[in-house]
Structure prediction request, 216 residues.
Amino acid sequence: MIRAGVRAVLATDPGIEVVAEAADGHEAVELVRAHRPHVAVLDVRMPRTNGIEAAAEIRRTLPATGVVMLTTFGEDDYILRALGCGAAGFLIKSGEPEELVAGVRAVADGAAYLSPKVAARVVAHLASTGAGALAGRRAVARERVAGLTPREREVLSHLGGGLSNGQIARRLHLVEGTVKAHVSSVLARLGVDNRAAAAVVAHEAGILPPPPAEQR
Prediction:
């Protein structure tokens, strides 16, 4: 029923084609190898091979396929593990259907997509674990961000907002290749492996993108 629901939601967007469905994580990996889709949507909890293991295998062997994870509240540890495996999108199953479409589209465009609820849960969870209090996490994040150039901080803020390179380029009036170079530099300077992890740092540091000019 969950797979049918996900398919129905994605079918509302004519730009998205569902090429296959998997009953478990092992089958998901095999189908990704067979179809090489732009995006794989994985449930954290799946039979045989779970979503975390499937995500890691997909990112290891088929890095061109982005991974979107579906989670529920109370699975914070799984979210952090998926983040470490290179998943680029995190959505709460109880979220709005539009979030699923937006997340798949963002990851297909090479962006990270953190549902606002997921981002808040990740930051809160990091604050409550061995890393110390939230204030400590924020201080560490701000210290890391302080090493960025003003332009890199600007790019990071838009990463935190889930924008793709093209969207950031249009927002900042830059060439997309220049944005791509800035993103690579931001990831290297922050010591993170992917855009989703950088987005978490942005949220921890309290760096939020300014509203579009027409909304100011």
Summary: The mean pLDDT is 82. The radius of gyration is 17 Å. Residues 29 and 157 are 33 Å apart (CA to CA).
